Amino acid sequence: MSIQSNRQLENTHAKLKLLEDRLRDLDNEPVANVRTRELTKQSLKKLANQLKEEIVRFEARQVATSS
After folding, report:
1. Sequence-ordered alpha helix ranges (H) in 1-67
2. CA 34/CA 55 separation, integer angstroms
3. Cβ–Cβ < 8 Å for 2, 31
4. DSSP label at 65?
5. CB-based contact 37:26 (threshold 8 Å)
6. Which of 1, 48, 61, 63 could form a disulfide linkage to 19, CB 3.0–4.6 angstroms apart?
7. For the segment 14-52, what is each residue's pLDDT rounded down to a tens digit?
8. Number of Cβ atoms within 10 Å of the Cβ of 3
9. Euclidean distance between CA atoms 64 and 38, whole angstroms
10. Phi and psi at residue 31, in whole multiples of 5°?
11. Cα 39 to the chain's mean position, in Å?
């Protein structure tokens, strides 16, 4: 996965916000299975971190090309 345009950057920011909102919601929801919730949170956190890394890489390339 690699961000190639400002449009993709905007979409990635939107996806990241949705993931972060979902992570917050999971903490406030009733739990039927604690293990499942923890695994879900781990997966969402991993994806959120991947998106953050892609954002940073894209922004670093933008700065490097504008210098």
Report:
1. 6-28, 34-66
2. 31
3. no
4. H
5. yes
6. 48
7. 999 999 999 999 989 999 999 999 999 999 999 999 999
8. 20
9. 39
10. -110, 125
11. 16
Residue closest to 10 by CA, chosen among 44, 55, 49, 63: 55
The DSSP letter of residue 3 is -
Residue 65 CA to residue 58 CA, distance in Å, equals: 11
In contact, 55 and 16? CB cutoff 8 Å: yes
pTM given for the model: 0.88
Give the separation between CA 26 and CA 18, rounded to whole angstroms: 12
Q: What length does the chain have?
A: 67
Kindly indicate the confidence band of residue 12, based on its pLDDT and cuts at 50, 70 and 90: very high
In the chain, the amino acid numbered 34 is V
